[in-house]
Structures are given as C-alpha cells and as structure tokens.
Amino acid sequence: MFAAKAPKGSMAAAAKSNERSRTESQGTIERSNYTNSEATPRTLPDSQNGALVASMSPDAEDTWTPIREHATEDIDGDGDMQDISVFSGNGVIDEDSIYSKNERTLVAYFGPLPKEVDHALNKADFYTEPMVAKLDLDSGFGIVVSQKKCYIWAAQKDVTYRSPPMCIALPMPPNSYTSSEARVLLPAVTITKLDDQHSGVLACSPDGTCWYWNDIDLSLSDVNQHMSMTIDLVQGDYVSHVECAGPTGYYLGTRFSNVHQVWIKKVNGSIALASTPLHGKSGGAIASLFSMIGRPQGPDTSQRLRALTSGPKIQDPHGRWDLFAMSRRSLLRWSLYRSGETTMESEAPILDQITERVMRDYSGSLPLGSDPRVRLLDIEYTRNGKLVVLATFFATAHKYVETPLSCALFTLASQFGATVEIESVKYIQRTVDEDIRPEATPRLVIPHGGPGVFIIFPKAVIISSTLPDFDFEDLVPLKSDRFIGFGAEDWKQRGQEMGDSSELTIVCKASGRLGIHIHLDGIGSPSLTDDFRTPQEQLTAQLQAKLEQAVFFGGKRNNPISFDLAHYDTGDLNQASLNVNQEILNSHAALLTSGKDLTSRLLERFQRIKSIINSIQAAEMTTRLSIDTRFQLCWSAEKLAAANALWGQYQLKLAGKEKNKTSSRTNLKNVMDDAAAQSLEAVGANTTEDSLSFFLKYHVDGLAELLSQVQQSAKKLPLKSVGQQVELTRDINKILVLTMRSAWNYRRQHVKMYALQNTSSMEPWTGTENVIRSLTAQYMATLSACKSNIELETSSMDVDDKEEFVGLSQLNSELEDQLCDLADVTLQAHSEHLQYLEGLVQSSQHNIAIATAVEAYDDAKLELLSPLIELKKTEQAVQLAQRYKDFTTLVKLCIHQKDQITIYITKYQQEFANALFQWYYDNKQLATLLEVGEQYSDLFTVYLDSRDYSELAWLHDIRIQRFVEASQRVQDCAVLEMNVDRRRTMFSLSKLLFLAAVPQQHPSDADAENMMKYASRNNEELEMATIQTYVADDWERQVGSLVSVEDKTKAVVKTFKSPVLAEQPMLHKALLRSSQSLLNRQALSSEDLLDILMTQQKFEVEGVDVCDAALGICLHASDIPENRRPHVLEDIWRRIFTAHSAVDNDADHHQDWRLEDVSDLEARERLLNSWMARAYAIIYRADGQKDELLLRPEDARCTMPAELFRERFMNLNGDSDNEAELERTCNAMMKDYERENQELERQISQTQLLEKWKRVKEIVKEEAAAAAESASANQSIYMEDVESC
After folding, report:
1. Are 1048 and 1004 in contact, with CB atoms under 8 Å apart?
2. Closest among 563, 550, 445, 566 to 507, alpha carbons compared
3. Contacts 24+ apart (CB under 8 A), 13-17
4. Tag placement on the chain: N or C end, fewer CB within 10 Å?
5. In degrees, to the nearest 5, what angle opens at C-alpha 36 toward C-alphas 30 and 40?
6. Rounded CA gap, 934 and 920, in Å?
7. How far apart are CA 455 and CA 679, in angstroms?
C-alpha cells in the first residue's frame, strides 16, 4: 500500500545548495490505496492498519512492500493523449493486451509464465520459500530462481506469448551455510554470454559453491552436466549479489561487501571457471590474514552489502570499467581493466552525507538532533555518467509502528574520493511501509541509463525520471498479485544513445510477464516544466487520470493492475468524474476506440460511461459525490442509452425494403438530418458529413435539443399527401417515445447505484420546457392526424382517393395507440419538471414558478387525457390518470358510479376526494356536495380547511360540532360582508357559535389568550355593525318620507351640528358620500363612521353613548392604520371640544358664553351636559384603562401630515388616478381640517375653553364622589335592614 506524502513546504526547508537544480514544488499528486491480499504468517503481529511492519532497528534486514501511493503525472499542454501503444521491437500492442494507459505510461501483457513456473509459484510461501525472476533480454532467456531450482525459458523482447512457453529446470548448488538466515537465502544466478551465439548459466549458492552450465538451450538433456567451483568466504559471510561488468567478467558480492570476480574463459577449447577476490576491502585476503594469526577480525553490520552496479566502458587506452559496491554506510569504487587488473579507487561514507542533506531539506519536521534513520537500498548508473541512490528515511521526528517511510533518489558524481558530491535530490511523493518477506527489498532500475526510473516494490512500481527539473511520477500498483522480478536491455555494453522513452519488463507471480513503457518526449516544453495549475487542480487532474484508467482498463479480464480510488481524498472527485464523463459522452476521450461504425461507438461509450460510477462505487466513494454530480453521471449514461435507442430505431426504419415506403424513409431522413443540423447550429458546430451521425458522435450531450427540433423540422417539411404525413408522424412518434423511455428505464434501473434518493438542484434534461413543448406539439400533431383520418374515413371519396388511403384505417389505429404513449411521456416530463422545481430553495420567484408549473401540469393532464376519452381509449386514459394522479379525469369518468367513487376514495383517499368535492363545487351542486361531504366527513373537513370556502364550510363545521371553527369562518365571512344588516347578523351568529363552543373547550394558556383576542375582535366588529345599523335606522325614521336616497342624504347631513361644517366643503362632500352609503345599508370604514358620529354631534344613538363608542372604535378598530390612529384620536377630541352643549343646541351664539356671564349653578349645569363632561366621565370611570385616549384641548389640533391625508382620502374622487385632481382634493381637505384647528384656537382664546375643561374635570370628579357616597349609604341601610330581620 502507498500513502501520499505531504509535499515539501512547512514540513521541509527549501534546498539551500546552488548545485541542486531541482525546484521543490508540490507537483502533481495523485493517491491510491490497495490492500495486500496475500496471506500473512501466524507468527507475525498485524499493525494498526493491517500492514505487516518489521522492527525499525538498524540491524534489521531491510525488505519492503509498498503501503501507500501518491503519484505525480505530467500532462501534455494540449491535453491530447499521445499514441504510446508501441514497445520497441513489438510493433503496436493490441487493445486486449493493454492493461493501463495514460499520457505517459503504458502497461501491457506479454504472456504467461511456463506451467512449471506457475505451479511452483502457486505452491511457494514467500515468507519461507522466496523466489525471484530475472529477464535477460540480450540473451533471450528468462529465469525464476528458488532455493533448489532455476527455471529457464525463452523470453525474447520482441515476442509476445499467448500460451505458456516451454522451460527447463536446473538444479541449484547445495548450500552449507547454517545461520538462521540460510532457510530464506537464494543462490545468485545470472545468464552468461561468451559470444553472440551461446549463453550459459552461472549459479552460486550462499556458501560460495558455484555451478556453471555452458551453452544452455531448451533442449538440454542433462541438467546435471555442469562445472563447479567454490569461493572462500569469511566466517558468517555469504554470497548475495551478482553483477556483469562488460567483458571483464562476473562479480559476486557478499554480505560483508566483499567482491569476487568470476572468470569464464575458453582454455585450449575447453571452458575454465575461476574466481579472484577484489582487494581493498576487509573480508578478503585481509580477513584471512587475521584468521591465520588467531584474531578473527571481521566486518561490522554497517558493511553489509546493499547493491552492486557497474558503469559502461570508459573511453581510455586501457579499456576501463567501473564497479560500484554500496554497503549500508559507504560507497566503494573499483576500476576494472580489460587486462584483468583491478584497483580499488575510493570509499566514501555516503550515509552521513545523505543524512545531512535530508536533515537540511526537512528541517521543518526534523529538528536538530533527530535521527531520520536513512537507509541505503539500491544504486544504479545513468547514461550521463551519474550514480542514482535509492534511500528511505523518516520525515518526522516522532516515529511509531505505523509511521511510513519516505523515499528519495540522490544523484551522485560517479568519480569521487573520500566524499561524494550530491548533485540533486528527487523526493518521491509516496511513502512506504516495510514488507518483512525475504526478497522484498525495493529495487532501482534505470533502463538504457535513463530518462525513465523504476522503483520496483513487491506490490507496485513507482516510475520517475532522471531529469531533476521534470516532476514526472507515476505508479503501477497491483491488486493482489506480486512482482518477483524484472528485466531490461544491457545498454552499458551497446553504447546506445538515450532516447525519450524507457521500457521495463516485469514478472508477476500470478499474472505472467508485463511490460511498462514510459514516453517522455517534449520534456523541455513549457507546458510540462511550468504547470500553472493550483495544487488542488493538479490533484484533481491526477484523480481524473486514475479514474479514466479505471474506466477503460479496470474491467478487463485478468487485469492485475489496481485502479483503487479510495484514498484520493485530496482531489475533487466531483470535478474529476464530470470531466471524464464529459470526454466520454462527446467522444473526446483519447482512450476511446476510433474507426468503428456509429452503432459500435455508441455502445462503447455507453459501456465506458457506466464504468465511471462502477469504479467509484467499487472504491466505496459514492458518498463523496454530490447529489448533482450523481445525477449528471446518470443523465449522461441515459443519454447514451437513449441515443443508442434513437439510432437503432432510425436505422431500422431506413433499412426497410418495401418499395412503396421509399418516400417515407426519405421524409424521415430529411427530418432527422434537419433537426440535427439545427441542433448543431444552436451549439455553433458545423460539419460536412451526415449531420445526425456527427451529432451523435460529438454532441450527444445536447440530445434534448435534438428531440426539441424534430417536431419543428417535421412541421416545415412539405409533403405530397395525407398518407405521407401520417407515416412520418408515426415514425417520429416511435423515435421520440423509444428515446425518452430508454432514458427513463436506465435511470429507474440504476437509482440505487447512483444513490438518487434525493432531488437535484439541476434540471433533468428529460424535463426541460423545450422537451415538454416539443412532446406536446407532437401529441397535438398526432391528434390532428387522427381526427383528419377519421374525417377522411367517414367522408365520401372517389375510388382513386379510396385506393390512396387504403391503409389509413390501420395507421389511424396505430396513431391512437401512439397518442397514449405520447401522453405518457409528456406527462412524465411535466412531472420531472415540477419535481425539480419543488426541490429548489424557496423564494418568492421560485414559488411563482412552482405555481405556474403546477397549473401547466394540471392543464396538460386535461389537455392530453380528455381526447383519449373522445377516441374511445378510455382504458388507457384511466391507466394514465391513475399513474399521474389526474383525479379530475377520474372524477369525470366515474361521477355517476358511486361504487367506483368508493373504490377510488379508498385507494387514493384525500387526493381523489379533493377532486370529487371540487367537481361538485365547480358545477354548483352544493347540496350534493354537502351530502357527499357528510358521507366522507373527515376528508371533507380537510378539503374545506385547505380552501377559502368559508360560506360553505361553516355549515359543515356546525354539523360536526366544530363550533370554534364555525365561529371563525362566519366571522371571516362577516368581515367581507358589506350590507350592515347581514354583517351585524353574521357577527351575532359568530358570537353565538363561540359561546356554544366554550363548554367544549379546555384550552392551554396560549390557546385561551388567542380565543380571547378572537372573541374581543368579534365583539368590537359586532358593536361597529350595530352602531351603523342604529344610525341608519335613526335616519330612516327622520327622513323616511323622502323618496330618493340623494334627498334623504342631504336632509340627514343638514342635521349635523358641527359649528364649522358649513365652512368645510370637502369634508361636507365626504360626509354626503358616507351618509349615502349608510342609507343604502352599506358598511362604512371606521374613520368614515367616526366622521359621521362626531360631526352629527348626538350624545346617544338608540341608547348607545356616542363618545364611548367613538373612543372604543379608535382604540380597537382593525381597519385604522396605526400611523393614523393618533390623528383619529385628535379628530375625536377636537370635535368634542368644539361641539355645542346639550342645552344650547338651538342657539349657536350661546356656545361662546363665558363663566362670569352665568351663575355657578348654570355654568355647572351647562358643563355637566356638554360632550366634554360625557367624554371625560367615560375616561374617569375606566380606572386608568383608557388614560391613553385622553387629550387636552391644546393637544387636539389636527397634525396629520399630507401623505396621510392622501392615503385617507385618495378614493374621495372615485377611482380616478388623476394625480393633479388627487392633489387638489388633498389640499382642500387639509384646509377643511385647518378650519377646525382655527375654531379650536378661537374657543381656547375667546370662550375660556381651557378653564371650562378644568372645571369639567372637577365637576365629573365631584359627581363621581357623590355617587359613590350615595351608594355606600344605601349599602349601610341595606345591612341595617338585614340585621334587624
């Protein structure tokens, strides 16, 4: 398993060396995880995350398994996939053999392993019986080595096997090494080549026993015919590595970094085998010398050999080659000469230098004094004369069992002394955990010396490059298989130039032989070296690339490559999946097969686009997709399903061979081509090929637009006869219905896969207004054709005409059936459109859109299903009405069938009942409605509660004894009633119903408060209606003898006693208008009623105190705006203060009397009978409850602003909207009210109004005190009478 390592930033300091040419950047990162499915030993504990982790001590054997991945890939600037389906020598790889492919990397299958090898590998336990493979492409042999056998088979680079090749098995030399490690040590085996014609096998067991087979081929009869030789080893040492260094021979490296040269030469026609230790390292002759003198001096563990490698031939007169040995701590270099001489040139402690470099680069996460535990794993020589060292380290100071290791490639100078120059470092963007199995150490391979670099783990191959400024990185992980070996051409002896590609052949335990090809051309392009995408965009691009590979290659049979997306949590999965989806949908994906016919290409795209959700679902990442993304992926797949159906039906029609149908096929082709051309024009696309084919190849995303254009194209096509019109209509119907249903069928069948339980905020393409409009138009065209055919069948025609329309009857029957199908798909589209709108965030505009859609849906049901009934398609109409819950149609079909009504109500409950009740209401059958409502009382109650049918609903409420609801409904009706008599009656009835409900109620505190407010409002409205009735009745008694209402109105207004009314023409006009309405028994507004009451200046009307009523109306009336209520109160008091007294009603001049002009008794009498006294008495008796209604004379002036005057009297001139006229009316009314202010000021200044007001308050208080004393005395007398009894 691989894990993404955080890019160097805050966790590591930027490189400080000027020699380092690589710029640290986050790069392009991609992640994936896979699980090691191989069995784990019982003796080893599992780590926290399931990976087996060995001890981290320095002495532990360092073998590894990839744990997590974090790859980087470079993408061409133009975004096009390059054709890299080519391995050198192999030609183009067939599609079935390609296991993985992206812009840079190709993985292909090169054939199985021999059956004997496959059998041995399947039986092997890699914890106790390791096996390794090696492919020698120069000799054309592959080998698999176990402890006892070496299997050899032909493995030429340019040959791909389709069946298991033949092989031979050579026995391996015996091993007498007896340490605890001996049970898992393998012999060092290599293919030798003395000339171009003959190859041999050199095998050396860990104890130094060497066997050599000369001239190996697959027909070898005696596998035991070999030469042998023994290499003297220091005690505890063993052979572990073998390296070929050109013509100078083969070199065996041992555990303690001793190197022995093995010579294979022809001597007198015979093959001779000999060995010589390379001097300069302890462990060879020096160790023997110590042993001879009795001092067993040997190397420590830091000298254990890690890797051997050699360089190419150096161009000098001596024919020199370099051999490099890397131990755990040091790097050693020997010079090898063609003459056979060897010289140890240098030894450098590279571990310390690499550790220092890591500490410097990761100073942010590795504080001074911490130990990154750097481990040297492998070394390779590059074509540019450099050494590349693979090392691992801990990038954090805190280390736990599950802490992963970081990897890096260090480029060193190949010529060095006591120290080595580190020229550059490339940190791998993946971390690894150890694999404790033998032969699991990561191997570094640089085919051809670069530019490709391969790091081979048991479970994956990390791919990088030797170019320091090129941040290319990729990963080839396995699902459950295991890499056991590899092979590449030996470039060091051929002197080949470094190309722009690299190839590696790898051997899998179960999957056979694979080839990896990487293509790195154009590396100097700015598009590759300068990536201007953000880190998040880079991560998303890598996730997209991995998803695309999973889509195209993940479903291949026996494909061992893992495309697991589960841990690509840093990339935007929504964006990545939509990008892959769009490329496949519109044929832009480079991995799509080209050159196929359109039918095959549509099917391939359909299968690929389905694989997107399959791949995401396999990684258990579906929940990371937003609901909109899931819908878009589903819609794209269903578009291709629909396109397949459309194209298939279209081709089926065109392929018909009936001679008399040629014109029909031509008409259909013209319509579809024109519709496709119009659709392409709408998206700005042009083509010279068949427009429909081009559209379905590259613009199928706009399928809704194509369907919308079909009907328009058919409408404008000129046809010669009705028969052609009918046939074309029939063919288009088939295409439209099949296309729509194919899309919906796919969606319905894959709801669970795409997790489409919720609604999307995006409009479904099958429910757009254009699609609905087009389907509706096609329905109407089909209906028109049906009706035309019926007319033709029933009309009298000539014989020739009858022959022309021979098949119209059969066609008409087919059209009628299609009419039902069109109604079905059209209503389904309406339903989708409405469902989409209902799922959006609510707003006023959104609510309007929903209301419009609901209305259109209901209209469509009626418009589409009613004709079916007329065409005797009643059964289909009923089915569609039930499916789309068109209960209006169902009601029409069963309105006289009580049993059927009962069935539908039982099945559909409220929905059908609402339609049934509404039908009775709309058809004015109210008696029947109440009767049926009583039968289904609960349903009828819900129906009425959801509608504003108060005039009917209160009767039902009374019947079911819901008196509170009935009272409220009657009150709602009363508020809207304009006749004062009926208004008063209805408020009275509302009050009675409320009182009837009181014994039934046990309300909570909140409900009780609401009920009191409701009862209070009812009483106030009833009082207002009653006063208006009293006033109207009083006027009728006064002027009832007059005939016309106008005369009555004038006579009534003349009785108004306001002292300034004669000087208020506009107010006089308003009073005439209000009085006339009241005489006509029309209810007045509260303000108009107050104007009449206060200018009429009667103390009482039918026993009702006018002042008390006026103040109550001002306080409680709901139709008085709050911003005008204070000014209404001003009007009341101002008219109270300026009113005549009761005793002076017939003598206006007496209104100006002064207190000193009359006696105290008379003054008291006059004041006590004034409106001021009556008004103040009402306030005083209220015990503070109406104090807010009390105004002083100086506070009673009219202060209402002009804009409120406009609001108050804007209807005085009728419905005229003449702004100038309204302005004049407003100004005139303001003058009238100003006249009242002037009158108030006059009485204050001239008639002692303030003194009179003061005296009124005293008189009222005295009268109240006297009344209280009288009441107390009467109570005392009553008590005495009781006591005497």
Report:
1. no
2. 445
3. 13/360, 13/361, 13/362, 13/363, 13/364, 14/361, 15/360, 15/361, 15/425, 16/360, 17/422
4. C
5. 155
6. 14
7. 52
Q: How far apart are CA 407 and CA 211, in angstroms?
A: 37
Name the nearest CA neighbour of 1087 among 991, 1185, 1211, 1186: 1211
What's the helix, strand, coil split of the chain in %, to 5?
Answer: 50, 15, 35
As a whole number of angstroms, the distance between CA 962 and CA 957 comes to 5
Query: Residue 781 and residue 736: Cα distance in Å, rounded?
Result: 13
pLDDT band, very low/low/confident/very high, at 1237 (cuts 50, 70, 90): very high
Query: How far is 1162 from 778, CA to CA, in rounded Å?
Result: 95
State the Cα–Cα distance between residues 1001 and 1007, nearest whole angstrom: 10
pTM of the predicted model, to two decimals? Answer: 0.67
Are 706 and 678 contacting, i.e. CB atoms less than 8 angstroms apart? no
Q: Which amino acid is at 1036?
A: E
Asked if residue 1093 has pLDDT above 80, the reply is yes
Local structure of 1085: helix, strand or coil: coil
The pair of structure tokens assigned to 385 is 């004369």
Listed in order, strand segments (DSSP E) in 1079-1168 are 1100-1101, 1104-1105
Which tokens belong to 644? Answer: 């397949």
Q: What is the DSSP string of 1022-1057?
A: HHHHHHHHHHHHHHHHHHTT--SHHHHHHHHHHT--
CB atoms within 10 A of CB 427: 22
Q: Give the C-alpha distances (Å, rounded to integers) separating 1138 from 1012, 1176, 1257.
A: 37, 15, 16
Q: Note whether 1180 and 1259 are within 8 A (CB).
A: no
Q: Degrees (nearest 5) of the Cα angle 325, 330, 331?
A: 40
Q: What phi, psi does 906 have (nearest 5°)? A: -65, -35
Structural element, H or E, at residue 332: strand 331-336
Exposed, middle or buried by CB within 10 Å (0-12, 13-18, 19+), for 271? middle
C-alpha torsion angle, residues 576, 550, 83, 452 (rounded to 10): 90
Say if residue 865's pLDDT is above 80. Answer: yes
Q: Kindly report, residue by residue over 642-701, the tens digit of the pLDDT.
A: 999 999 999 998 887 665 567 888 899 999 999 999 999 988 888 878 899 999 999 999
Place of tokens 């161009």: 315
Cα–Cα distance, 1125 to 1131 (Å, whole number)? 10
593: nearest Cα among 1097, 98, 219, 930: 98
> Which residues on neighbouring strands pair with residue 152, listed in sequence order?
143, 168
pLDDT of residue 39: 31
**H-helix or E-strand spanning residue 609:** helix 598-618
Confidence of residue 1188 (pLDDT cuts 50, 70, 90): confident
In contact, 1171 and 1136? CB cutoff 8 Å: yes
How far, in Å, CA of 446 to CA of 633, rounded? 41
- Residues 145, 132 contacting (CB under 8 angstroms): yes
Mean pLDDT of 1018-1047: 89
The full length of the chain comes to 1285
HSE (side-chain half, CA atoms, 13 Å) at 1166: 22
Answer whether 702's CB lies under 8 Å from 681's CB: no
Alpha helices in 871-999 (DSSP H): 874-883, 887-894, 898-908, 910-922, 926-935, 937-945, 950-959, 963-976, 980-997
